[in-house]
tRNA pseudouridine synthase A (Candidatus Blautia merdavium), 250 residues
Amino acid sequence: MKRVKLTVAYDGTNYCGWQVQPNGITVQEVLNRHLSELTGETIETIGASRTDAGVHALGNVAVFDTSMRMPGEKFSYALNQRLPEDIRIQKSEEVPLDFHPRYRDSEKTYEYRILNRRFPVPTERFYSHFTYVPLDVEKMRQAAAFLEGEHDFQSFCGAGAQVKSTVRTILDTEVKREGDRITLRIRGNGFLYNMVRIISGTLMEIGAGNYPPEHILEILQAKNRKAAGPTAPARGLTLVGIVYKEKETL
């Protein structure tokens, strides 16, 4: 028996999120089915990030156990011949049997994309959030900087989350504009349910001039979801990648 780690990219538009659920087709369900067909075994993957419906990924991570003799690095090629075009394995590799993608120290990077112009662009409707309200990127950048470091992010946690602690560490943030496109990039050691989307919604409120950048500090201190801004739509969010400590990989 061996454990294989997959780096998975997908367009989340047509899926009800990552995790298997009874309400509709998910990325994990598709992976499990094709892996089971490939190996002749009943495969159930373990994912690192349970992205929501409509959220995209360039580098989500999943592992599975198999007795198939195929080398770990070959699974990416075999799977990509079977998977639908909106899911692609970027890398496969054998890892220790005790490697767990959620319980290892890691850094995750997310991007939230905003199309900020007078009218929407149809070809970007699944991959960015459109708003015609002019956004001040410098104010958004100043506000995002207050989030860096270790904080209690309870105000930025979606309802229904079951976690022991809402304390997380944001390692760095970046807000940049290129023409009509604004990208929020955020890297941290872990994120709460809907955390990046709530941060994005709040930063857009600040960019629109509804609050000063310093209002982020009051939101953090409130430890109340109602203190923060709206949850931004899923389609603008992409999980860029997950980096694990080197000593925990082969």
Q: What stands out?
A: The CA atoms of residues 59 and 241 lie 4 Å apart. DSSP finds five helices and ten strands in the chain. The mean pLDDT is 96. Helices lie at 27-39, 75-80, 137-145, 195-207, 215-222.
